[in-house]
């Protein structure tokens, strides 16, 4: 997943009239407790809907919103928000009715509602008759109103459920090691060989080009320290 340069933790300085961009490179063992807390947050949410997921909690745990954003993007390799399978929690009779009508997704159901409104309400639902019209539409489709409302938005972000992609959760050290550069891949600035976790580039363009030259084998998918070349 690509990140905008503005979203990456970094420093920008000027030396000798040249602008230097220094991306922050997370090392194994660094922020271990904070990353473990972030992983624990995701683990606690497995099987739960996105609606109530705290969007700012990652930044609170890590202490830096840019670094937290990069880490949550890294965690997308281990966790995924998935829409519930159709037809959700519909009953057996309701599922059979939907199958008979060849309504096999929220999109199909919304099209059925669109057709019903055109046929029975002149193509428009006012605030005054909206609820009664939706009740009538749900009944015509053999659905309870609660089921109808849920299925209409079953593919929305709010109803997506968090799933873990692997058999076990990631470890803090493993997550950090995926974002650490290999020693022979680093571009060290002349006269500064003591920085344990930073690489310098004269411009943002240089940084992007350097990332591109490393290729897919040397840049793990989780490595979001640098944006991919466009």
Number of strands: 4
Shape: elongated
Order of helices and strands: EEHHHEHHHHEHH
The proportion of residues in beta strands is 5-15%
Count of DSSP H/I helices: 9
Helix residue percentage: 40-55%
Mean pLDDT: 81
Largest sheet: 2 strands, antiparallel
User: Which spans have pLDDT < 50 for at least 5 consecutive residues?
Assistant: 180-230
Strands side by side in the biggest sheet: 1-2
Summed up, the domain count is 2
| CA-CA gap between termini | 12 Å
- Radius of gyration over C-alpha positions, nearest whole angstrom: 25 Å
Structural class: mainly alpha
Quickly list its features.
230 residues; single chain; 4 strands; 2 domains; mainly alpha; two-stranded antiparallel sheet; elongated
Short description:
By secondary structure, the chain is mainly alpha-helical. The protein has helices at 32-45, 57-62, 65-74, 92-100, 106-120, 130-140, 145-152, 172-179, 204-218, and strands spanning 10-15, 18-23, 79-82, 161-164.
